[in-house]
Amino acid sequence: SPGYFVNSGECSPCNSMDELCLVCSQQGDYCFECEAGYFVLGGKCLACSEKMSHCLECSGDGATCKKCDDNYSIKKNQCCNTGLQAECEQCSDDGDGCSQCLNGYYL
Fold first, then answer.
1. 77 Cβ contact list (under 8 Å, min separation 6)
2. Is 103 exposed, middle or buried (0-12, 13-18, 19+ CB in 10 A)?
3. What is the pLDDT along the chain (107 residues), one digit of tens a residue?
4. Cβ neighbour number for residue 88 with a 10 Å cutoff
5. Bridge-partner residues for 5, per DSSP?
6. Are the C-beta atoms of residues 53 and 93 closer than 8 Å to each other?
7. Global confidence as pTM
8. SS3 label, residue 57
9. C-alpha distances out from residue 44 to 16, 24, 47, 101, Å
10. Among 86, 39, 85, CA closest to 61
11. 3-class state of residue 84 by DSSP
12. Rounded to whole angstroms, how far apart are CA atoms 14 and 2?
């Protein structure tokens, strides 16, 4: 059943191999679904924040951020500091600066 794999004739929970894994292969060597705040990459669970700065929750593949740290909001699939000016169209990779402005504005 999901969440378990066979280990020496016994059913073992997926999180016994990877504490963040919720659903794994029947051998327990590949994770398909991770706990909230983590995504699957190569069968392992990685923190959403490793792919996108300040991202607390993301899609299962880590491509889309669903929730950001406090004082950050999602803008063009990035977590941007809420203190950035409204004229900032896209924030920097770290989320704390502006990398692109709206038309008519410049950095």
1. 52, 63, 64, 65
2. exposed
3. 679 999 889 999 999 888 999 999 988 899 999 999 999 999 999 999 999 999 999 999 999 999 999 999 998 889 999 888 888 889 898 999 999 999 988 88
4. 19
5. 12
6. yes
7. 0.80
8. strand
9. 13, 10, 10, 37
10. 39
11. coil
12. 8
Please count the other Cβ atoms lying within 10 Å of the Cβ belonging to residue 102: 12
- 106 in helix, strand or coil? coil
**3-class SS of residue 7:** strand
Two tokens, residue 22 = 């919720």
Pairing mode of beta strands 10-13, 44-47: unpaired
In the block, tokens 């809420």 appear at: 82
Those residues whose C-beta lies under 8 Å from the C-beta of residue 46, and which sit 6 or more positions away, are 38, 39, 40, 62
